[in-house]
Amino acid sequence: MQRSSSPDPNDLAPGKSATDSMAASTADAVAIPRHLPLLVLLAALLLTALVWQDTRQRVAAEAEGRFALRVEELHRRFENQIQAYAQVTRSAAALFTAYPEVKRAEWNRFVDGLHLAERFPAITAVAFARVVDQWTGSELVTEARMDGLRGFRIWPDMAGPLRLVTLYAAPVNERTLRTLGYDLLAEPVRRAAAEQARDSGEPVIVHTVGLKPDEGEPSPPAVIVFQAVYRDGQSPATQEQRRAAFAGLVMTPIQVAPLAESVFGRMGDIATAVFDGRGEFPLYRSRPDSTDRPLLSVRRDLGLLNRVWTVQYESRSSFEEGLDGWKPVLVLATGLSLSLLLSALLWALAATRHRALMIAGRITASLRRRETELDLLFNQAPLGIALIGPDARITDCNPAFARTVGVARDALVGADMRLRAPDPAVTAAIDSAIAGESLRLEVDRLLMAGGRHSHFSLHLQPVSTPGEPPFVMAFVEDVGDKRRAEQHVHYLAHYDPLTGLPNRVLLFDRIAQAAREARRDGARVAVLFIDLDRFKIINDSLGHSFGDEVLRSVARRLHGAMRPSDTVGRLGGDEFLIVVPNIPAPDVAAAVAEKVMAQLAAPFAIGGRNFVVSPSIGISLFPDDAEDAEGLIRCADIAMYNAKDAGRNAYRFVTREMGVRSRERLDLEAALRRALQNRELFLVYQPQLRISDDLVVGVEALLRWRHPDAGLVMPNRFLPVAEETGLIQAIGDWVLDEVCAQVRRWHDQIGLAVPVAVNVSAQQFRDGQLPAKVAAALDRNGLQGWELEIEVTEGTLIDDIPSAIATLRALKQRGCLIALDDFGTGYSSLSYLHRFPIDKLKIDRSFIHDLEQDGTGDSIPRAIVGLGRSLGLSVVAEGVETEAQLQLLRSLKCESFQGYLFSRPVLAEELEPILALRGSRGRHHAPVAEPAAREPV
Q: Distance between CA 896 and CA 874 in Å, rounded?
C-alpha cells in the first residue's frame, strides 16, 4: 500500500510500447473520409428542409385551430343574442296568454319594463295588431280615440273583409305613434308573414323590409318577428282552430346592424359580414382593417326561425400578428447555419487530424502514469482512509479522509494522532490498534486543532506484513447527516410539521402517561377536543396557505395559554387537543375551556386582515368517561359536535345521551349499508293530475326503507346520513335503474304514456356522470328520453351555474324532461332562471298549505304560475290535500297537482289501475289510500 517512487521504466520505453499501440489504434478510429463533410452537409440540409416544412404545417394548423375556436365562440354568441331578441316577442305574446284583456297602459308598462334601449338596442319598438272586420273596425277606432289617440284611424283606406290593425306600439314616441292604425294585410309581404304566423302558431321572420311609416326615409336592414296571439289565451292544436281563434299579432322590428354590432362590434381580431341566405349583398359588415385578402376566412349558416342567415368571418391583422409565423423562418435560418457550421467543423477536424493524434498520444501516456499513482494512493475509495504508522503518525491519506475531517491533506501527513485527537478515547483506541486490536467508535471531532464538528464513525484496523513494520488503517465516515435524518424522522413521527405541536401519536402517549399518574394519585385527566368554527370558509375564500398561517397563529395562542404540564397538540385539519393532567374536579376543565375561548376571542391580524376564529370544545374526563386515550378522544369528539349543534363558540362535557345519539347514527349508517345489499329499499309512486280535466299527466317516484326491526323509515331520516357518507351515489343509481325498469313494465303491460319523475341528489348532479348514467338506464330498458323526468332543487343548480347548465343541456339532448323541485324555497335568482333548460316548476307544499290563509296566502303561487306561463313552463303544485286548495289553484290557472286529495304515494301495483284508466276523471274516484298522517316525500 506504499506510494511508488517512480514509474516502471519499461512502461515508458520508446519503440513498440503500449502507448504507441494505443496511439496507432486511435489514429485508425479517428480517420475521417474526405467526402464525409459533404455527405453531412447534404443530410443536414435535407433534415432542415423537413423540419421547416413540418413547422410551417404546424403553425398553419395552429392558426386554423385558433381561428375555428374564435369563430365558434362568436357564432354561438350571435346565435344566443338572436334567441334573446326573439324571446322578447315570445314574452310579449305570453302576456296576452296570461292576461288576454291587456290594455294600452299595461302594454306600455310591460314594454318599458323590458328596457329596450339598454338591453335590446336593436329593437325599435314592440307592437300589437288586432284582427277586426268591417263591422268591428269602427268600434276599434272609437276605443282608440277614447284611449287618448284623438287622430287614430285605420289606414290605408283599402278595406278587405278582415283587417289587422296596429293598436299598441311602445315605447311611445313620434315614430311609434305614426305606426298606429296601419293595416298589415294591406301589404303583400306582411300579409303573407301574418298568415304564416297565424297558421303555425310559431314566430315568423319577415324578409328585410322598412317600417311602413318610414317610407321615403333611409331604412337600415331590419327584420320583423311576428308572433300570433289567440283569443282567451288559447293554444290551438290545429290550423283550423288557430284560424278560428286568431286575435292578433305581436310584432318586434329588429335592426340587423345594432344586433350584429352588439356581438361583433368589439371584436378587434375578427371581421364579420351577415348575409340573408346565400345573398351577395351583406345586411351588416364590420369595417375591415385593410384591403388585403385575409389569411383565414370561413362562412357559417345560422338558422333564424323560418329563415337562414350566413355569417362570414375573416381574420384581421391583429389576429394574424398573434400567430407564430416567425417559427418556420427561424427553423430554416438555424438549420442552414448549423449545417454550414457542422460541415466546416468536420473539414477543420480532417485538416488537423494528425496533430490531434499526436496530442492524444501524449495525453494517453500522461493519464496512464497518473492512473497508476491514483491507484496507489487509493483516491477512488468512497470512505476516508488514513495510514497510521507505529509511532501514531499519519503516513498517508486519501482526499476523502481530508474532506471528512476538514483539514488539508498536506497538513495531515506526518501529524501525530495521539497529540491531535481531542477525545482521550481516540488516543486509547489508536494505542490499542497499534498493539493489534481492531476497534470501532463514534466521536464528534477527530482533531483538536482545526477540523470540523460532526458525527464520525471511526474504524481502526491493524495491518502487519512479513518484513515490514506494522501499521494501522483508519476508516472514517461522516454519519452526521444520517443521525440528523434519524432525528428528523423521529420529530416527524411525533410532532405536527405545520404547527410544531405534538401529533396524534405523541398525544396518545401523553394521555396514557397522564392516566397512569392520575390512577396512582387518585386524580382526573381532562381531554379537550377543539374544532375551529367555519374554518373551511377561510380555506375556500383566502387559500390554504392563508389557512395554514391561521392554524399556526391558533397553535401559538393555545400553547402560550397553557401550563407547562399541559399538552397542546394537533390531530389534523383544524382539530386541536389539550391534555390537562392531575385535575381535582371537572370545574378545572371548564376553566381551561373558558380560557381557550378567551384566548381565541381576540381578533387575529394575518396578511393585513383582521378576523375572529371561534372554537367548539368537547370535554371528556378520565376515568369518568373512558379509561384509554382512544375512548377519551372519541367522547370529547362527540361532545364537540354537541357544542357545534348548540350554536358553536361553546364547550360541552360529554354525556351518556350524546354517546347514545352518536351510536344511533353509526348504527343507522351501518344498517343503511346493509339495506343496499339486502334490497330493503323500495319505491312508491304518486300520480300527478291535470287540474282542468283530472287526467293523469305524470308520476313521481319516491324512496322508502323497510327496516327489518324498526319498520318503515322515511327519507328525511336516512337521506342526510346517506349524503354525509357518500352512500347517496349508490342509492341514486339504484333508484334510477329501478324507475326505468318499472316504466318499461308499465309500458308493456298498460301502455303507459306519461313521464315518471325521479329526484336527483346534489352529489349525483354534480359528479359529472349523471347524463351518461341516465342515457345508459334509458337504453338498457328501451325507453325514450321524454318518459323520464329529472327533478332537481334550486340549491343544486345555483352552486355552479355554468356546470349546471352543461349537465341540464346534456340531459335535454337525450330528450329527458327537467323539473325544478321545491321552487320558491331555494336561493336561485330569476336572472338565471331563463338560462336553465327546464320544462316544469313545482310549487313547494309549504306555499300550498298557506293558500287557504286569509290575506296574501296565494301571492307566491300566483307569481310562480305567472312566471311559468311567461317562460313557457308547466307548473305543478305539490301537497294538495283539500278541495279548497284545488279550487284556488284552478282559479290561478295552475296546470297540474299532486297530493293526498287524490292519492298518497303507493306501490307500483296499486297505482296500475289508475294509470290504466287515466282517461277517466280520477279525482272523483275513491282515493287509493286514506290520507292518514302526513309523511315526508
A: 8
Sheet order of strands, 439-443 included: 394-397, 384-388, 471-478, 456-463, 439-443
- Burial of residue 101, with CB atoms counted within 10 A of its CB: 0-12 exposed, 13-18 middle, 19 or more buried: exposed
What number of other Cβ atoms are within 10 A of residue 86's Cβ?
A: 18
State how far the Cα of 65 lies from the Cα of 55, in Å rounded to an integer: 15
Report whether 298 contacts 71 (CB < 8 A): yes
CA-based Rg of the chain, rounded to a whole angstrom?
45
Three-class DSSP labels, 472-483 = EEEEEEECHHHH
Backbone angles phi, psi at 917, to 5 degrees: -110, 35
Phi, psi angle pair for 636, to nearest 5°: -65, -35
DSSP 553-613: HHHHHHHHHS-TTSEEEEEETTEEEEEEEEESSHHHHHHHHHHHHHHHHSPEEETTEEE--
Q: Which contiguous run of DSSP H or E holds residue 388?
A: strand 384-388
Apex 253 CA angle, 251 and 257, nearest 5: 160
* DSSP code of residue 410: H
336 close to 48: Cβ distance less than 8 angstroms: yes
The CA–CA distances, whole Å, from 101 to 233, 249, 418, 618, 853 equal 9, 14, 117, 66, 29
CB atoms within 10 A of CB 138: 11
Lowest model confidence (mean pLDDT) among 54-58, 490-494, 524-528, 574-578: 490-494
Question: Is the four-CA dihedral 564, 570, 575, 581 of positive or negative sign?
Answer: negative
pTM > 0.85: yes or no: no
Instruction: Give residue-wise pLDDT tens across range 61-105.
Output: 888 888 898 888 888 988 888 888 888 999 999 888 888 889 998
